[in-house]
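Late entry, written up from scratch paper. The run itself happened at the end of the previous shift, but nothing got recorded in the book at the time, so transcribing now.
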Amino acid sequence: MAVPTVLPHLDAVQAALATAGLTVYLGGAPTSAGWTPPDKYAVLYADAGTAVRESLGDRRDHFEALVQVTCVGASMDRALWVADRVRLALAVPLAVAGRASWRPEELGGPPVQRDDDVTPPLWFLPVQYRLQSIPA
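Output as recorded:
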């Protein structure tokens, strides 16, 4: 029995978003001196996932995880543009080696918000997705 792991799933989400033409950061945007944020990008956050029991035989090879894609833009329109690209990128099953994946399930999130704690201000929209897979 192969125990499912989160990193291949996270890599698949990141690859799908990059293929959609998005700049993607993991766990937060860079904070290094001199970094200038692009006018639109996505930040990917993930939990560790859960190996789910698939039968009374206690085989824990089904996998579920929650990921959040925070869509960021220099304007509200830009943040929503990123959200549209994310939705399109995740509208198909993810390619995870050795796994058969469901299409990510969009769970939504709060409305677009403006972050005035950064200069210049940015707009952001967190959207959560549930990932699920089984052995191929």
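The chain has one domain: 6-135.
(Scratch paper discarded after transcription.)
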